[in-house]
Amino acid sequence: MTNTQDTSTLKMTARNVDIFYGDKQAIKNVSIDVSMEHVTAFIGPSGCGKSTFLRTLNRMNDTISSARVTGDIRLDGEDIYSSSMDVVQLRARVGMVFQKPNPFPKSIYENIAYGPRIHGLATGKSEMDQIVEKSLKRAGLWEEVKDRLQDSGTALSGGQQQRLCIARAIAVDPEVILMDEPSSALDPIATAKIEELIHELRGRYAIVIVTHNMQQAARVSQRTAFFHLGTLVEYGETSDIFTNPREEKTKDYITGRYG
Amino acid sequence: MVGTTGHTVKAFDEELGQLRALISEMGGLAEQAINQSMKALVRRDNDAAMKVVEQDHRLDELEMEVERLAVRLIALRAPMADDLREVVAAMKISGVVERIGDYAKNIAKRVPQFAEAKDIGPLAILPEMGKMASEMVRNALDAFAARSPEQAKAVVERDQALDTFYNSVFRALLTYMMENPHNITPCAHLLFMAKNLERVGDHATNIGEMVYFAATGDHLGERPKVGADED
């Protein structure tokens, strides 16, 4: 299967990854590459393991005591599961955005400034102001909030909150952004803004998105991976996956015959 | 190739079924139009020829209906993969079948020219060519209904034989025209009719190529050409 690619823009590589929750195997022997130049989408029916796999890319599964990961996952060639890897640092480099917007119950400004502060990325107030402004601009939220940075982040609309969370992830200067169903709780306009944002962020960050919405995967990604029952069934160019999938299972899923 | 199971959303299957039924109906009408125009020619039956001309509007209507349904299906069902290729193919095929109907109509319109003409040899072999062309149309549409790349390929390969047939009719008509200037007018009409039938074969071949792509997602390689000595 052509689920790997040899380009110089490779950001993360996973080889022969198995993931268990206790005795239950959630991911079976998955190998996949994530590159800087493509947005990578993970699709598949509920319970196929796509979110589980996404969360191993920044060791978010470490927080689940029964979860066990074997295999090899590397960020810029560095084994992220090695004992020398600083997990806090890893999660700054590989940021994450969740299904439900989860801003801190603090001001908009503080939501952005928190990460850079604990990572020591800013030396003074003006530098922090710059980071906040740059992050909000990149997340397409600056114009809407620049005059009320001291308002609470939770007072924003759902779509704005999600862009705030993306800005928060951007603020610590990550290399990879993982998005787990980032717009499933948003209305179509807010969804379109998130998709436009993903498009703008492409190339600057390696982006991996898990989505149940196949149209969204088709719209925002250049690579699509189809997961089924814990295995990676097919991984390829998004346009090929949606117009001419090679695997029967992929076809049945994307045409609405299964799942 | 085709998923054996239906879609989770049953209405989707029903709409795809409607689309297929419309294409089948169009194919049947086009095939019939060719056969009836040939029959009208042989019998010098102007009324039958007029009927072919009159019935052509039904193909135009069906083409519009296919377009409407296909656009609706794309908008409401967002078809993917082989479904998407099939809907796109249906839309294109309907346009091609409508053109085939125009060729049959064109042939029928010339039938009155032969009311007083005496027998010309090639006139007798034209229906044979018409039969071959209409069979290609039927086979192409059958391939679509069966979503069969093999059947589609067979149609494409058959086009050579029709081209060869056309070339021989062309030469025979030239000979007749050179023999006697009085033959020129009817022979010229027959030549146009033969050319129309040859074009029908080309269109059936196009349908075969579309069906092949819809069924496999790949394009059929360059189609073989037979000694292209004219046009």
Descriptive keywords:
heterodimer, A: 259 residues, alpha/beta, Rossmann fold, six-stranded mixed sheet, four-stranded antiparallel sheet, 10 helices, 26% strand, B: 231 residues, mainly alpha, Methane Monooxygenase Hydroxylase, Chain G, domain 1, 6 helices, disordered C terminus
Explain this structure.
The complex is a heterodimer of chains A (about 260) and B (about 230). Chain A is of the alpha/beta class. Chain A has one domain (about 10-255): P-loop containing nucleotide triphosphate hydrolases (Rossmann fold). Chain A has 10 helices and 10 strands. Chain A has helices spanning about 50-55, 85-95, 110-120, 125-140, 140-145, 160-170, 190-200, 215-220, 240-245, 250-255, and strands spanning about 10-20, 25-35, 40-45, 65-75, 80, 95, 175-180, 205-210, 225-230, 230-235. Chain A has a 6-stranded mixed β-sheet, with helices on both faces. A 4-stranded antiparallel β-sheet of chain A has the order 2-1-4-5, with helices on one face. In chain A, α3 crosses α4 (about 125-140) and α3 (about 110-120) packs parallel to α6 (about 160-170). Chain A starts with 9 loop residues before the first strand and ends in a 5-residue tail after the last helix. Chain B has about 230 residues and is an all-alpha fold. Chain B has a single domain (about 10-215), classed as Phosphate transport system protein phou homolog 2, domain 2 (Methane Monooxygenase Hydroxylase, Chain G, domain 1, Up-down Bundle). Chain B contains 6 helices and no strands. Chain B has helices at about 10-45, 45-75, 80-110, 120-145, 150-180, 185-215. In chain B, α1 (about 10-45) packs parallel to α3. The two termini of chain B are about 40 Å apart. The interface of A and B includes residues 215, 245, 250 and 254 of A.
